[in-house]
């Protein structure tokens, strides 16, 4: 089983430029610089790489929307989103701390593909070690002529900077991130125009996730056919899957895209801790719908999870066991989403605190049966198309699926006027 993203990452250590090059690092860049930018885009399109940050948009197609040629606006920007604020998600941190040159090479190739002159790594404020490893790697890359003017004698120029963020979940929305990078409040922008034509400082810009960009060097080095061959899904490549919750062995594993949920949960995470039973899980972070026992055989790819009624999201699962209160869990999630709302639109600004307060009342024995109908109506009011961005609809996904699969737990709280899971 091939693990191109993580095979050279060692726990607690960071690969230097020499380590990375010893393992074939920057060979993908050399291959890319012999092609035209459009040819690089086509290789990535043919590989079937889709965004690993949550949305799953085809990467090569996204790049193709950026204007290319002498008449294109300048400068153009490439931004790596390393904010990683999705609860339960920590896969990008592994890549940033363990093998930072993999990201830098991926960014240089991606910048070449869209002819961007300037790049930013937008990093979560709390990732202190990652900030250190990236800073050191950037210095090594400049010293080796891999960044700056005339990279490897190709005539291509690219400067790359580290930007430490203030840390807001809304920056997962790319236009909110761009506003933050410009020094403004992180509110999403109206679209169109899309960032590919008018992004950072009004210039063409691409925002890609860290894991997405780390795939790019391997595709250019080994080819699109190889990339598709290491997947067991219609989409190419591997995926870094994660499991958190009361399992025996929580962690991260790079596996072929399309393994089953049961393989990750039982073979990699070791199943539930002794004395606990599996009840459900959020397959791709906090903003995805619960799946339950009947879904354990589904493929963990974009199509398989969607057909089951949820989303692959970040591919990092949060597991619910039979001795944890689902009402308390969902209340905790809605508290997070309410706190992280940017306040730009009314459904999100007022609807999420309202949802949180109803759940708090149910959890603390003050709920009424009609509250369940009210929660159902809020999942519709805050559904896609009714708010300015995807934050509120994402917040409704764990709630609507909890009401679907675990409604009796909500009703039991109301009937007993207490949380049955508290001693």
Automatic annotation (TrEMBL):
Cited PROSITE patterns: COMPLEX1_51K_2
InterPro entries, per the entry: NADH-UbQ_OxRdtase_51kDa_CS, NADH-UbQ_OxRdtase_suF, Nuo51_FMN-bd, Nuo51_FMN-bd_sf, Nuop51_4Fe4S-bd, Nuop51_4Fe4S-bd_sf, Soluble_ligand-bd
Keywords, alphabetical: 4Fe-4S, Flavoprotein, FMN, Iron, Iron-sulfur, Metal-binding, NAD, Quinone, Translocase
EC category: translocase
EC assignment: 7.1.1.-
Pfam family, one: NADH_4Fe-4S
Occurrences of domain NADH-ubiquinone oxidoreductase 51kDa subunit iron-sulphur binding (ranges): 327-372
Known partners and oligomeric status: Composed of 13 different subunits. Subunits NuoCD, E, F, and G constitute the peripheral sector of the complex.
UniProt similarity note: Belongs to the complex I 51 kDa subunit family.
Function: NDH-1 shuttles electrons from NADH, via FMN and iron-sulfur (Fe-S) centers, to quinones in the respiratory chain.
Protein name: NADH-quinone oxidoreductase subunit F
Annotated organism of origin: Caldithrix abyssi DSM 13497
């Amino acid at each position: 089983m091939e693990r191109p993203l993580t095979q050279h990452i060692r726990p607690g250590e960071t690969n230097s430029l020499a380590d990375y090059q010893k393992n074939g690092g920057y060979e993908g860049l050399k291959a890319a610089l012999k092609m035209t930018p459009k040819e690089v885009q086509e290789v990535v399109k043919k590989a079937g790489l889709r965004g690993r940050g949550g949305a799953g948009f085809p990467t090569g197609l996204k790049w193709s929307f950026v204007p290319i040629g002498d008449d294109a606006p300048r400068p153009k920007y490439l931004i790596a989103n390393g904010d990683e604020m999705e609860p339960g998600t920590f896969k990008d941190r592994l890549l940033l701390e363990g093998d930072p040159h993999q990201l830098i090479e991926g960014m240089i190739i991606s910048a070449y593909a869209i002819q961007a002159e300037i790049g930013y790594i937008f990093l979560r404020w709390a990732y202190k070690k990652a900030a250190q490893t990236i800073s050191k790697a950037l210095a090594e890359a400049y010293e080796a002529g891999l960044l700056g003017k005339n990279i490897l004698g190709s005539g291509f120029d690219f400067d790359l900077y580290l930007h430490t963020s203030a840390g807001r979940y809304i920056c997962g929305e790319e236009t909110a991130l761009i506003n933050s990078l410009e020094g403004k409040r992180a509110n999403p922008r109206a679209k169109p125009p899309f960032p590919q034509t008018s992004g950072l400082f009004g210039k063409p810009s691409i925002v890609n996730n860290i894991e997405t960009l780390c795939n790019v060097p391997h595709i250019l080095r080994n080819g699109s056919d190889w990339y598709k061959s290491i997947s067991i899904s219609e989409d190419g490549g591997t995926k870094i899957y994660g499991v958190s919750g009361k399992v025996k062995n929580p962690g991260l594993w790079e596996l072929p895209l399309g393994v089953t949920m049961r393989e990750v949960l039982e073979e990699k995470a070791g199943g539930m801790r002794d004395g606990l039973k599996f009840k459900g899980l959020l397959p791709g972070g906090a903003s995805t719908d619960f799946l339950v026992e009947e879904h354990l055989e589904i493929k963990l790819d974009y199509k398989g999870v969607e057909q089951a009624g949820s989303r692959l999201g970040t591919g990092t699962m949060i597991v619910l066991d039979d001795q944890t209160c689902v009402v308390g869990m969902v209340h905790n999630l809605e508290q997070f989403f309410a706190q992280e709302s940017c306040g730009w639109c009314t459904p999100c600004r007022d609807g999420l605190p309202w949802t949180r307060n109803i759940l708090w009342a149910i959890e603390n024995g003050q709920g009424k049966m009609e509250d369940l109908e009210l929660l159902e109506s809020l999942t519709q009011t805050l559904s896609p198309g009714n708010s300015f961005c995807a934050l509120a609809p994402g917040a409704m996904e764990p709630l609507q699926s909890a009401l679907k699969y675990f409604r009796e737990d909500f009703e039991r709280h109301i009937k007993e006027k207490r949380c049955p899971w508290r001693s």
